[in-house]
Amino acid sequence: MYKNYDIIIVGSGVAGLYAALHLDAAFRVLVLSKGEVAVSNSSLAQGGISAVIDTENDSCETFISDTLKAGGNQNNLQNLTIMVEQSRAEIENLVGLGVDFDRDKSGNLALALEGGHSKKRIVFHRDSTGSEVTNTLVKRVRERSNITLLENAHLLNLEKLDGFFTLNINNNCYISPTCILATGGIGGVYNYTTNSPSATGDGIYFAHKIGAVIKDLSLVQFHPTAFANANDFQSERFLISEAVRGEGAYLLNCNGERFMQNYDARLELAPRDVVSRSILAEQNRTGSAEFFLDLRHKNGEYIQSRFPQIHAKLLTCNIDMTQEPVPIYPCQHYIMGGIETGGNGETAVSGLYAAGECSCTGVHGNNRLASNSLLEALVFSRRAATHINANAPRNFSAEIQLKIPPGATPTNIDYAPIRTELRNIMQRAYFITPDYAEIRKNLPRIAEIKQLLESENLVLTPELIETKALATTAYLILS
């Protein structure tokens, strides 16, 4: 069985949904969600979206300068300029779509400060901006008769044949001349991550497999303030938003002392990579991995109204952030590298686009500035849609059947131990800073795992694809 679409979008976070909404209504569009549509890295984003809104006190030049500083001046300046100059327009567009951003007493968009920013420029919806934006976009997508949203859709294979893409989705064949990969991050390759369980690098794996360029995958960002619950052994860690430090929270060591003054003049508002490295340095100095985020000196009612989700979540763990410091520790959060794209989301493979965290536009440089991720997803997914509107074929039709590879009866294996081994290797070899001895020691083992997964006659399942993606991602990062 096969189904034709003009455009297939793999991923239902902000990048995938926003692209779908900006495609011409004449296109037949399929949006694939790996699980339930509400589960994505986008929906987990707490802080907000960076934008130049207050033009009396902020400017595009200042925003660009802050982003360059955070990224070590390794940013793609052309794409960064595009992103910043489009920031206000994207926020206005979201408001028009119905996104409920917080307002100040005058009814204007409320603006917050976050680490690495020199001005208040973060628009937000309390401490659940990603969820508010994603839910609104899902509503609008469901209103479009030309867009089909398919949940629990597992991409088992992606190939390009005769100028069009064939996608094996749940062992059904889907065909399209244009494909957008918006599959999110790679958090599943680490023991501890703020990412959703669906973030296993699938899009990067398939793009690499069909010849796209994968760039700067070693630029992994570790967030300094993930909740460190001593009784929680889950891989996914609850994030304590950057906005909490933006509201004045202190970082404390095991002795209850502030320590950032010993490492950076920006104190708690230094960029994420600086704060994470400072925590490691302080750990080496004190011999303790206990760290805390303290907001007790702020008004308790304000804390609860500003951070209702974080406050409520911590209460379930018997921690009241208005009365006591919150235990935190860095963990994997984001990937700056990914599928290399141009300014319109185009990749080295004709007809293949990428947007969001799985892409590499270069706007972040070596380290992403807080709240720039949703902005990048918005700007470049819309630009990809605009480019597709002008260039992609319409009313596409082709006939093809899934090819079942010949051979012996497929076998199945337990992927859990392999995934655990990969995560343990990554945690040892590259946590905040790379350990080159561990990398050299373990790269041959990861290569061996990759070869095993590719050579064995294994049953084609979502677990196999995710494990292949994790092994490929781990190999590309460390190599």
Largest sheet: 5 strands, parallel
Q: Tally the helices.
A: 15
Which class do the helix and strand fractions yield?
alpha/beta
- Could you name the ranges where pLDDT drops below 50 across 5 or more consecutive residues? none
Describe this structure in words.
The protein is of the alpha/beta class and 479 residues long. The chain has helices at residues 14-22, 41-44, 60-70, 77-85, 87-97, 129-142, 202-209, 242-246, 272-286, 300-306, 308-316, 373-391, 416-429, 436-455, 462-478; strands at 2-4, 7-10, 29-32, 49-50, 122-123, 147-150, 155-161, 164-169, 172-176, 178-181, 214-215, 220-227, 250-252, 291-294, 326-335, 338-340, 352-354, 359-360, 430-431, 433-434. Helices cover 36% and strands 17% of the residues. A hairpin with a 1-residue loop joins strand 19 and strand 20 (433-434). It is globular.
